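input
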Amino acid sequence: MAFWHLTQKRWLDRVFLSMVLFTSQLACVSLAFFVVFLLSYMMNTPIS
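output
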């Protein structure tokens, strides 16, 4: 029972780590898209 509990905890830690990595990657990708969109918008808009 203790061994099963240990393996379950390890599996939960692995799932949590993968979720954190996925969330950070998603945030980085969305931030990069936002920066590219902002730069293209500033390039297309003439500065008055």
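quick obs: Residues 10 and 16 are 10 Å apart (CA to CA).
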